[in-house]
Amino acid sequence: MFGLMVRFTCKDESAAAGFDALAARTGEQIRAHEPGTLVYAMHRVDGRPLERIFYELYRDEEAFGTHESQPHIRTFLAERERYLSTAEVDRLRFLSGKGVNGEH
């Protein structure tokens, strides 16, 4: 498995609302068209109203490549910049745990 954790900081409350709407539309397309994307979850951060954390888990790096090439992802990547002041991306290598596809 392959994953990402991304911390986004929005410019202001109005930008956060726009970003949340963009992320929701993108999530609908991911659920409908990306079987190799196992988890794509967006979280608000308690006490930090402008921050969002995405946790993404893919079957493998090929599934991540497929995800990145989708039209809805290209749209998300192009449009998100107008809402954000920062984006921090961590690439994750799975070691162990419990969750998607049972225990590992």
Automatic annotation (TrEMBL):
Taxonomic superkingdom: Bacteria
Classification via InterPro entries: ABM_dom, Dimeric_a/b-barrel
Any Pfam family: ABM
MF (Gene Ontology): monooxygenase activity
Domain ABM: 2-94
Alphabetized UniProt keyword annotations: Monooxygenase, Oxidoreductase
Name of the protein this chain belongs to: Antibiotic biosynthesis monooxygenase
Biological classification of the source: Bacteria, Bacillati, Actinomycetota, Actinomycetes, Kitasatosporales
